[in-house]
TrEMBL record:
This is F-box domain-containing protein. InterPro entries: F-box-like_dom_sf, F-box_AtFBL13-like, F-box_dom, F-box_SCFL_complex_component. Residues 7-43 form the F-box domain. It comes from the Eukaryota. SUPFAM superfamilies: F-box domain, L domain-like. PANTHER family: F-BOX DOMAIN-CONTAINING PROTEIN, OS11G0201299 PROTEIN.
Amino acid sequence: MAAASDRDSFGDLPDELLWRVLSFLPADDALQTCVLDTRWRDLWRHATSLLFVFDGPTFPRYSRFEQLVKPVIHLRGNSLLVRCEIDTYPDDEPEDTFTNTRLLIDYALACKAEELVVRAADVKYDQPVFDVPLSLISQHLKTIHLERVNLDCSDLKFSGCPVLQDLTIQFCNIHARKMSSKSLKRLFIIDCCSLPDIVRLRICAPSLISLQLEVFEGLTPFLENMPLLETAHVNLDGGCHDHCRSNRGVCDNFVCGCHTYPVKEGVLLNGLSNAAKLDLIALPKMMGFEMVPCLWQIKDSVNQ
């Protein structure tokens, strides 16, 4: 009976199934499986999902994150990754730097990760604090999800990620004048993102097939031609600055949204004109919709 109780109940399970189980465990828990035996140590090293996500009180999470980053990188070596999810925490010294987070991002790219999720997790801050390194270079990265971080660059070029297909930007500060990707197919800018309010963000994504843009603060982005676009959901609510703040149509305040028209390079929403299905929602005070051309091309519905 004793021998039976000591038997590894997972011993008969194939590696593929155990890798699947490990893919759901946070890095802290997954690392602890290494003490079971040498098989588990090898299983953990070759698991293709790395989750730096922590539960529990703020300070234990913060401390544990700092303790784990370098040992995990050292022990895993160059084993391939498919997905890496990182809750970022600032370092102790110097204050408010993110050296460990940057190490993890570089490590994930070196391990040829196909999906990268980065979110600011420190609850002491109400606004995004981590500046994502924008010189991301990867021949393998297909999906990027950014949450509560800063995109503090004049030009968001994703040319270094030639197979990037999905980009989600959620509750982020976007300071860029241009965002561009030749390969991007799905773009989601959602949940209270802050966009430029003086110079309009210009989005160049000629391969885009799906767009979601809603609940943002700032000027509506200028969308370049998107000939492959199939579906789009655009919600210009009260946070959109494309209106006269004095409700006069045109006022004397030259930084007001009423002075952003006309757009010399073309119409503001020109990129949406090829969509097969479009949900376009705007408040009556929003300006510039008389400039949207060719809405007769839209096949399914327009909600305005």
